[in-house]
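Hello,

I think I submitted the NAP job twice by accident. Can you confirm which output corresponds to this input? Input:
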Amino acid sequence: MLNSFPDDSRALVTGASRGIGLEFVRQLLADARFTRVLAGCRDPGRAVDLATLAATEPRLQLLRLDVADDQCAASAARAAREISDRLHLVVNCAGMLHDASAGVVPEKRLADVRPEALAASFAVNAFGPLLVAKHFEPLIARRERAVFASLSARVGSIGDNRLGGWYAYRGAKAAQNMFTKTLAIEWARSRRNVVCIALHPGTTDTGLSRPFQSGVPPQQLFAPERTVRQLLAVIDRLTPADTGRFFAWDGSGIPW
Ligand SMILES: NC(=O)c1ccc[n+]([C@@H]2O[C@H](COP(=O)([O-])OP(=O)(O)OC[C@H]3O[C@@H](n4cnc5c(N)ncnc54)[C@H](OP(=O)(O)O)[C@@H]3O)[C@@H](O)[C@H]2O)c1
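Support: Only one job matched these inputs. Its output is below.
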């Protein structure tokens, strides 16, 4: 599967409790090259699907990782070091578009904008991958292949914005994209083996997209299995020259 990675590779997936993150965990475990898969989730006690997988899969380890919480990310990185001294692949899947319990509803117009919703979206979508980078950087493999991939969204592209709306999500993903690019520039100087990129998964049938699927043609709504298979194929083809770029599920480039 992931032929570009060495034997005995180690991966971290954030937002692994459900949706695309959970499917990344499944498919990485299906690849014998990956001897450790660390699954970050906010509440391991409630991550039923991960617990079921972990019951029969010793290569899978659950980590408590709220990506919006700097202290939690620091503790998770310390716990990860106890399990593995290096990581070859980090996939940031944690993200949020709507959250009824926090009153986050994607805005249709300016009048819908609420500071609390902006802050909640930025905390997860924008700050999350950056805090993961900060705390897990020492674990990222230095001499072997290493990929740091963050799930962004095409709607976070400023150049591609034709419809407007969704201020909090668009703005937070655009900020995430800027952090990814800035990190790629820093690592191109200090950790030249790391390929740091943003990925657009395509509209995928998960809880995140479910309220917004009615206008999506069936052939454009991917099952998580397909999305992750496609994204792993993109990841497998990456070279160091690709660092700092934004790729869609089919490997095409997206403007920032
Ligand atoms: N689905 C799509 O159509 C689509 C399209 C474009 C981009 N994306 C992006 O793809 C990524 C995955 O989306 P998805 O469709 O899999 O969404 P999902 O099914 O709603 O899953 C979101 C995941 O993020 C986790 N999460 C939320 N806040 C977190 C936090 N503070 N710390 C750690 N984990 C947190 C959730 O954990 P809990 O179980 O604890 O809530 C859950 O595991 C997101 O970044 C999303 O923006 C998705």
